Amino acid sequence: MPQLSLTSSENSFIDKLDDYASEMLSTVETWSAQNSGSHNRSGLIAMRAMLSERFSDLPGQIEETALPNGEFVSKTGDVETIIYEPALQVSVRPEAPVQLVLTGHYDTVFPEDFHFQNPVRVDEDTINGPGTADMKAGLMVMLTALETLERSDNASNVGYKILMSPDEEIGSPGSSALLAELGKRSHVGLTYEPALADGSMAGARKGSGNFSLIIKGRAAHAGREHHIGRNAIAAMAEFIGGIEGLNGQRDGVTFNIAKIDGGGAYNIVPELAIGRFNVRMKETEDMDWIQSKLDDLVAKLNLKDGIHAHMHGGFTRPPKPMAPANAKVFDWVKQAGGLLGQDIKWAPSGGVCEGNNLWASGCPNVDTLGVRGGDIHSDREFMKISSLVERARLSSVILMKLASGEFDAIAAKKLATQC
C-alpha cells in the first residue's frame, strides 16, 4: 500500500484554514453567549436559527425535523409528556457512492437561569464559556472542515447528512431514532464531541441507562397512626442499598443514584418517593444482567404490604467497543494527524455520546473530533483557541481522504456488519 501523503491542492486548502481562525472564534463566542440548555426551548430556537443561517452556506438541503415527544417522571410521581425542539438536518449529495453522517448537538447542560452565561478570554489560547468545548466549537470545526471539502477536487464522490440535535445532553431521547436511521444508511460517522485538553480522544465507550423508580406507600399521622402508614422513603432507602450493593459485582458496571424526590411535613409518613439513577456498562451483555438485578429489587419491594414500586426509563446508549471497524476509522484519524504533525492518541471512556447510537446501528465512527478543552458540564468549561484551526485541519484531511477513496468507507462499513 502506498504511503499516505497530501497532494499539493490538499496542502493549499489546509494552509488556507489559518485565514478563518478569527471568524471561527468570533462565531463560537456568539454561539456560546446564547443559552441553549436542553430544556430552554426559547434558547434552543434562537440557537437553531443561528446554526441554520450559518450551515445554509453548504450545498444541499437544510431542514428542521420534528422529534417525537418523550416522557418524564414529575416530582409528583406522574409520567408526563415532554416536547423536544426539532433537530436540524443538512443533506448534501444523497446520490453519491460514499455516504457519511456527521453529528453534533446544540443543547448544553446549563439551565436558562444558571449564572454561567457568557464566554471570557482567560489567556491568549484559552476561552472559558458555556458550550465552548461541549460542543458549539465542535460544530464550528465540523462546518469549517465541510467547507474545505466542498472546495476540494473529489468532493462529488462523497455525500453526507448532518444531524444537529437538541437533546444529546439528556441522553438523545427524542433524536435516538434519527441517529439509528442515519447510522444504518451511512458508511462512516464523524461526531464532534470535545477531545481532552491534550488532544486525546475517546476510544471504546461504556453504555448508559437512565431510570426513575416511583414508590408509592400510604400516608398517615406520624404520631397517632404511624403503624398504619407505609413509608415510601424507607422503601426507597432499601432499594438504594440494593443498587449500591451491586457496584463491584460485575466488571465495569456502575450504579449511581443521582436524585431523590418525595416526602413532606415531618409529621406525615411519606407516601411517595422517586429515585433517579444512572447505570453504566462495558459490554452489551451487561444490560441483561443489570435489568435482571433491577427487576429483582423492584419485585422485592412489591412484596411489602402497602408498597407499590414501578420503574420508568431504560437504556439510552449501548456500549461502543473498539471493534475492528471502529479501530479502522481511528487508524485513519491517526494517519491524518500524522500528515499534520499531530500525534493522535485515545483511551477508553466511561462517558457516552451519539457515537454509541451510531455504532449500535452498525455505523463505524469516531466521536471526539471537536476542539481540545476540559472541565465540561461545569462553569470552568474551557476550550483551547488554537485547536479550532488545528482540529478543522484534521477533519478536513479525513474528509478529503474519504472523498479520494484513500480511506475506504465502504470497506469499513462491511467490516462493521461482520462484527
What would you say about this model in short?
By secondary structure, the chain is an alpha+beta fold. It contains eleven helices and 18 strands. Helix 2 (21-32) crosses helix 4 (132-151), helix 5 (176-185) crosses helix 9 (354-360) and helix 6 (232-246) runs antiparallel to helix 7 (286-302).
Describe what this molecule looks like in 3D.
By secondary structure, the chain is an alpha+beta fold. It folds into 2 domains: 8-72 and 82-205 and 320-417, 3-Layer(aba) Sandwich (Aminopeptidase), CATH 3.40.630; 207-317, Alpha-Beta Plaits (2-Layer Sandwich), CATH 3.30.70. The protein is 35% helix and 24% strand. The protein has 11 helices and 18 strands. It has helices spanning 8-15, 21-32, 41-55, 132-151, 176-185, 232-246, 286-302, 324-339, 354-360, 387-404, 409-417; strands at residues 61-65, 70-73, 79-82, 87-92, 98-105, 120-123, 126-128, 158-165, 188-191, 201-205, 207-216, 254-262, 272-281, 308-317, 346-349, 365-366, 373-374, 382-384. The strands form 5 sheets. The protein has a 6-stranded mixed sheet with strand order 1-4-8-5-9-16, sandwiched between helices. The protein has a 4-stranded antiparallel sheet with strand order 6-7-18-17, covered by helices on one side. It has a 4-stranded antiparallel sheet with strand order 12-13-11-14. A hairpin with a 7-residue loop joins strand 17 (373-374) and strand 18. Helix 6 packs antiparallel against helix 7 (286-302). The two termini are 25 Å apart. The model has no long low-confidence stretch (mean pLDDT 96).
